[in-house]
């Protein structure tokens, strides 16, 4: 399972990278705004900085919602760096754009996916990644993890190569459940990755080992 971090914060990206388990980064317009990154030039510069920080895919989202606009923006993003994956929303024009990008060797991440039907369509169009938003489904009392299971089944039935990128991951249990269900990738905050480290018995055990060592070596 690949681990992506879902942020545009460079310090958090570095921290996850330094752990040695980071495979990529996802961003979205809200995450860029949260870091105060505005204006086309600054946004492109920021994507480039993220690509220079890590080895791995970096999802950069188009803002246009019409086919021509998405193609123009997507081609510009893809040219920026070989690690860029163009993030395209799950709308009619988006599906057409994903098909175009796929036919032209540009990798895509189909975002804002909330149903198995949408995921099927994204795979048919040739998306590199499909991003089901599990946390947002949970937020409205729907089972986000069930969507991961449905998409896994459908993709395996037909051998679709589109990777399931579990998105809107909010916590460590989401990561573990997505791994059990066979998601190819998960993207979440730094806390969802670092949370995997924690177990009280590890802390108690280490404390005892160090105390016993000290007794015998003082
Ligand atoms: C995915 O690529 C999105 O950026 C993200 O996972 C959305 O997460 P949120 O629902 O926590 O905003």
Give a short overview.
With 218 residues, the protein is an alpha/beta fold. Helix content is 55%, strand content 17%. It has a single domain, classed as TIM Barrel (Alpha-Beta Barrel).
Shape: globular
* Proportion of residues in β-strands: 15-25%
The CATH topology assignment is TIM Barrel
Q: How many beta strands in the DSSP annotation?
A: 8
Name the CATH superfamily assignment.
Aldolase class I
Q: Mean pLDDT, rounded to whole units?
A: 98
For the largest beta sheet, what order do the strands appear in spatially?
A: 1-2-3-4-5-6-7-8
Can you summarize the main beta sheet? 8 strands, parallel, barrel
Main location: cytoplasm
EC number: 2.2.1.2
Catalytic activity: D-sedoheptulose 7-phosphate + D-glyceraldehyde 3-phosphate = D-erythrose 4-phosphate + beta-D-fructose 6-phosphate
GO molecular function, one term: aldehyde-lyase activity
């Amino acid at each position: 399972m690949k681990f992506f971090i879902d942020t545009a914060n460079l310090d958090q990206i570095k921290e996850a990278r330094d752990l040695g388990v980071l495979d990529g980064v996802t961003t979205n317009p809200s995450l860029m705004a949260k870091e105060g990154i505005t204006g086309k030039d600054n946004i492109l510069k920021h994507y480039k900085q993220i690509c220079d920080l890590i080895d791995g895919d970096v999802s950069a989202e188009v803002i246009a919602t019409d086919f021509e606009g998405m193609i123009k923006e997507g081609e510009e993003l893809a040219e920026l760096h070989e690690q860029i994956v163009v993030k395209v929303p799950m709308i009619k024009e988006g599906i057409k754009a994903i098909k175009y990008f796929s036919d032209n060797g540009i990798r895509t991440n189909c975002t804002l996916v909330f149903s198995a039907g949408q995921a099927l369509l994204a795979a048919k169009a040739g998306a590199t990644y499909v991003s089901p938003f599990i946390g947002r489904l949970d937020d409205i009392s729907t089972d986000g993890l069930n969507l991961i299971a449905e998409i896994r089944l459908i993709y395996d039935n037909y051998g679709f190569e589109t990777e399931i990128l579990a998105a809107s991951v909010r916590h460590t249990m989401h990561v573990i459940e997505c791994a059990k269900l066979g998601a190819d990738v998960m993207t979440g905050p730094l806390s969802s990755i670092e949370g995997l480290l924690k177990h009280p018995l590890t802390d108690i055990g280490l404390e005892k080992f160090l105390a016993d060592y000290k007794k015998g070596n003082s």
